[in-house]
Write a structure and sequence with these properties.
6 helices; phosphorelay response regulator activity; DNA binding; 242 residues; five-stranded antiparallel beta sheet; alpha/beta; phosphoprotein
Length: 242
Amino acid sequence: MYQYRMAVCEDDETVREGICGFCDRILTEEQIPHQIAAFSSAEELEACLAENRGSDEPAFHLLILDILMGEKTGMELAMELREEDDATGIIFITGCEEYMGMGYDVQAIQFLVKPLNWEKLKKALLNDWRKKGRQDLLLIKKGRQSLQLPLSEILYAEADGNHGIRIILKEGEEGFPVSLSELEEMASGGPLIRCHNSYLVNMNQVRRLDRQNFILQNGKKIPISRKYLKVCQEKLVSSINR
């Protein structure tokens, strides 16, 4: 299961604990698996990043950095990080608006001035998670209910005939009370595409296409209606050439 990892680097203990607690609460409410590491100086965080250098997985997906800290500033750390890493998200926090312009140089996703606007922090946090998490994980929500599934495990989804869906996995299946159209919207931009009024198929699981069906890697046939045939043909060519 995809786990979202973030670091909070702030030399004020009260502010640091407040940010960690807030982010933990938001991610927990959204049922997002996560880890939050706290650092009191740029040097501490720098040492942690150095230990992970060369790893296939990033140490953190998001850094929340105070700008003015001790000997080394958060901005200096961010500039050094960007020399070799342009994927890790960065949110700056500071008491001085004069540094805002410098955030563009390191592609910061948000710049927050103390006292913090918690709603802006929540929005930036969840936007960053969606940007990174959707690559590996499908999050389905309705009201207070939510379901998280690794995209690599999903074969296809079908309407269950009772205002819900069945998601067929490599092992087993999951049901959820949303329509196929709602699922299609939630999965927009990913490998799940509409091929029939009653089916969405994971293009990463497709082996080939015949006149009326997708043939999955496991041999299962998923019907393609005439309405969606041209789009499906284009999607298959695109996935092959990717």
